[in-house]
Specification:
- The structure is a homodimer of 473-residue chains.
- Chain A is of the alpha/beta class and 473 residues long.
- The first copy, chain A, has 14 helices and 11 strands.
- Chain A has helices at residues 3-23, 53-64, 86-98, 109-125, 140-155, 159-163, 181-189, 210-222, 245-255, 292-295, 310-317, 348-384, 409-425, 453-468, and strands at 133-137, 171-176, 197-200, 226-233, 258-262, 287-290, 303-307, 387-389, 397-402, 432-436, 439-445.
- Chain A has a 7-stranded mixed beta sheet, with helices on both faces. A 4-stranded antiparallel beta sheet of chain A has the order 8-9-11-10.
- In chain A, helix 5 crosses helix 7 (181-189) and helix 12 (348-384) crosses helix 14 (453-468).
- The radius of gyration of chain A is 24 Å and the shape is globular.
């Protein structure tokens, strides 16, 4: 494709893109497709000859778009959001055009230094401890794995890297029973063994109980195991629960354990000074992750990973083959040594565009608005009387179930999955579920930049309609 | 930013993007910046209030672009290329707009099924063994780590995942002394220990010597160690050397070792049927990786990872927390379980656009052309008589040095780094270096879609000019 054609096609795409952003609320948020429906529309073999772009773009609109889940739909209340925003999309256009591979400083000096600066900006915006160093990673799963590996190496004086884990004893890791599955995945990858991950009991707000943590550490020490690290969460996936960081951090310091804080979702909230208590005690921890690609308007992937001891991180991951040496390696950040991958996209650009386009105030305003919408929704549910709120509404997530007084627990357990399926089949909203204290729980997150009170009202109306269609009413 | 403004700004960006692609050859391929130059132009704090997009875009052009290394410049002959192409950029625009998070089928059915199909297409295009399963990962570093982890788990009947590596013995991994640094990084992450990575001697073509491999395995067994896996390479980073797959594979089968094949760069070449001998024996291996984001016109990141035994991969990485369960998990590909990360971008779209836009023939034509350019360049160097070609020109990489007969080895070692620096300071080309058999080696890759004979002539002219400026001529 010549650049003249590229120019023409790209202009056409921009109009489609702007139309899409304007009309995304008119798509069914969840597509009505069955497994295999899309595959059946795609030829089994690649074409021998190139095809006109018009045909490809037509197939994109005909086959792909109707089969997508629309993550930017105002009715997307499932999981956690994967925020995008117009300035972020604009940055992605430029990133794709420059197509730089940002593995080391010399292969993209501006990208490396912009990354350093925007990570400082994020730290300032969110009230993180001073003196920490930040790097953009792809996902919180990866960042948490990096934390576990750095903990493993610090505890073994880098002997696990050197000689392997065999013979070094059994290391144990601690988190709450509500912690994200990426911790278990990381424990497995790091060679520690899932049976050495202790899922500590939570309190009635689904937050880790420090006294249980202390008891578990003591029991493991007594059994001859080697307590290694704790992962505390700011905003759990199921219910946005917040573990008591300061208490946990004191324990970790007393016990010599690495403390990694997973703020993947909740971390964005500390852009609001009044929500800084969420990370009270973070300065005592060792590492911290949160995802601007969830709730801070920046396209996936953009994970912010912060560490207190940069040297420990680099010593864990650094490589220096001849073909990657440059004359200025000691003066610059070569981000290949800050994580697992060698190759890296230019991800700092979208974060820079977002932080400048919205400014600190603009971001705070959106977060505050989302939290208010969640409170409104929860209040409206309670006012309806036949709903239960199943967890504290800490941020912008409401965990609830339909629990009419004329029915009982077992019936609620049957009705709520059905209610969820009905809601999602409307095509107007998408909610997901979890289990809290054994109860089937509906989750509604209000985290789309387009979310307003009208969307709260819309979801309530749909709930009323679908509840009326349930059996046993 | 409203969508009306987005539409307007995006159109403006498209014109900048098309101009950039037309004019990229006029930028200095390596920017003339020193460490800290960019940082000094970026304010220490994020703005409190949002800024007009015009200001941000102006700063992008004023501060960022002049500080970038231009990877799509026709004079970029360093490392390996990170190919982009107009259809790939167009796809990235749409991916950013849909902004879907493709962790499981339900969160993006069309993305999941398109990924399945384009990976089948790639397997067909490149002559991969039938019956294997493919998944798009971010980088070959990650894919190779996945291979090592799956090997670890298969060898321990998934006990390392369950109970950790302590007490399971010392596992050894084998590769050549020319293998990419990601293997050592993966061995460390997987908890095996770098001292258990055996870097087997290479022959005079820089390919692994199977008899040395066999001896190393035997010695390790005799020492009570547990030989685990071999990583063979198709196109090493330093010189594009190709390890003898079939011989290695037979050894691995006899010894019960996992064989992972790293075709990160060279793999693209097997789109040419006449280059299929590069992967002769692959059907006996266990896993294979190559990067369409290097030499197949697809924007970074897009790594193609193929495995013979899908079930072993999934069993190594699968997680199933309540909040990620859906009703159709047994019928679909949930790609979160095919690797390390939970979150995933919609990367199949750009590969689909590329494969359809160019077709198999279009891709073959580009690869063949690149290989011919490398042969032309090598022939022209030899015709000049004072150059040495330091490795077989297997694909599109030429490893060479300036070695005039009136000087000796020690002087060549001094002159070549200087020649490289002078060449790169012209701003017209960017080459990188390596060491082959201890010799300082210049590397010139001809892998840009825009590379033609004119660029070969240009590089030769620059070489002549810069050699004339060297001391001792």
């Amino acid at each position: 494709m010549k650049t003249t054609e590229f120019r023409q096609q790209a202009h056409q795409l921009v109009d489609w893109m702007a139309d899409y952003l304007e009309q995304v609320g008119q798509y069914p948020v969840l597509p009505a497709v069955k497994p295999g429906d899309i595959l059946a529309q795609l030829p089994a073999l690649p074409p021998a000859q190139g095809e006109p772009f018009a045909d490809i773009f037509a197939d994109f609109q005909r086959v792909i778009v109707p089969g997508m889940t629309h993550w930017q739909h105002p009715g997307f209340h499932a999981y956690f959001p994967a925020n995008s925003s117009p300035p972020s999309v604009l940055a992605e256009m430029l990133t794709a055009t420059l197509a730089a591979q940002c593995m080391i400083w010399q292969t993209s000096p501006a990208a490396a230094e912009l990354e350093e600066r925007v990570m400082e900006w994020l730290g300032h915006l969110c009230g993180l401890p001073s003196g920490w160093s930040g790097v953009i990673q792809d996902t919180a799963s990866t960042a948490t794995l990096c934390a576990l590996l750095t903990a493993r190496e610090r505890a073994t004086a880098w002997q696990a890297n050197q000689a392997g884990l065999n013979g070094l004893g059994a290391f144990t890791v601690y988190c709450s029973s509500e912690t994200h599955s990426s911790v278990e995945k990381g424990v497995k990858i790091a060679g520690l063994g899932r049976q050495h991950l202790r899922k500590i009991e939570v309190d009635d707000q689904f937050a880790l109980r420090p006294e249980q943590l202390q008891a578990a550490i003591a029991a493991d020490r007594a059994a001859g195991l080697r307590p290694l690290a704790v992962v505390a969460t700011v905003g759990t996936t199921s219910s946005c629960a917040v573990d008591p960081l300061r208490a946990i951090a004191h324990l970790c310091q007393a016990e010599g354990l690495w403390l990694h804080v997973d703020g993947a979702y909740g971390g964005t909230a500390t852009a609001l000074p009044e929500l800084r208590p969420l990370i009270d005690g973070l300065e005592l921890a060792d590492s911290y992750v949160f995802n601007p690609h969830k709730w801070m308007l920046t396209n996936f992937d953009c994970t912010a990973y912060f560490v207190k001891d940069k040297a420990a991180l680099l010593r864990t991951f650094e490589i220096m083959p001849e073909y990657l040496k440059t004359g200025i390696d000691q003066q610059v950040n070569n981000y290949r040594d800050w994580g697992i991958q060698l190759g890296r996209r230019f991800r700092a650009l979208k974060l820079w565009f977002v932080l400048r386009s919205y400014g600190a105030e603009g971001i705070r305003c959106i977060i505050k608005g989302h939290n208010q919408l969640a409170q409104q929704f929860a209040a409206a549910l309670l006012a309806r009387q036949h709903y239960q709120i199943l967890a504290p509404v800490n941020l912008n997530l409401v965990c609830f179930r339909y629990a009419p007084a004329h029915l009982r627990e077992a019936e609620w357990e049957t009705l709520n999955p059905q209610l969820l399926a009905q809601l999602n089949q409307t095509g107007q909203v998408y909610l997901s579920h979890t289990r809290l204290a054994g109860r089937y729980t509906l989750r509604a997150v209000f985290g789309q930049p387009t979310n307003t009170e009208a969307q709260v009202a819309n979801l309530l109306r749909l709930l009323d309609e679908q509840v009326a269609r349930l059996p046993m009413q």
